[in-house]
Design brief:
The protein is an alpha+beta fold. It has helices at residues 30-46, 62-67, 94-100; strands at residues 19-25, 51-57, 75-80, 85-88. A four-stranded mixed beta sheet has the order 2-1-3-4. The chain is globular, with a radius of gyration of 16 Å. 18% of the residues are buried.
């Protein structure tokens, strides 16, 4: 019996992109904790096996936040694929996070409550 990996289904040009993400947080504050939990849930559901996530506590590593020009936290930085994008907040607005990641499915996620503007 042989094992076939999902990556084997695609040619090199057709493989889904690998995501490089950085999440800047401020310790164990409620907003930071929510952002980590929300982003991990999104990555596990939509990017399983094809993401690299670095969580940076700006209290412990302020030089990294300064070099990345982070002025608010939590902040998600999508380094790749495509253009670098930033999103500030606790990442509870799943459709907005999916749009930032280029994963907009065109419909609301039933498992995520919608927020009123």
């Amino acid at each position: 019996m042989s094992t076939v990996l999902m990556e084997d289904w695609f040619s090199a040009d057709e493989r889904p992109p690998h995501y490089v993400l950085e999440l800047y947080i401020t310790g164990a504050t409620p907003n930071s904790t929510r952002a980590v939990r929300n982003l991990k849930a999104i990555c596990e559901r939509y990017l399983a096996g094809r993401f690299e996530l670095t969580i940076i506590d700006i209290y412990q590593q302020p030089e990294l936040a300064q070099s990345a020009r982070i002025i608010a936290a939590p902040t998600l930085v999508k380094k790749s694929p495509g253009l670098v994008r930033w999103l500030v907040g606790d990442l509870s607005d799943r459709p907005r996070v999916l749009r930032l990641l280029g994963l907009d499915t065109g419909f609301e996620d039933d498992s995520q409550p919608t927020q009123n503007s």
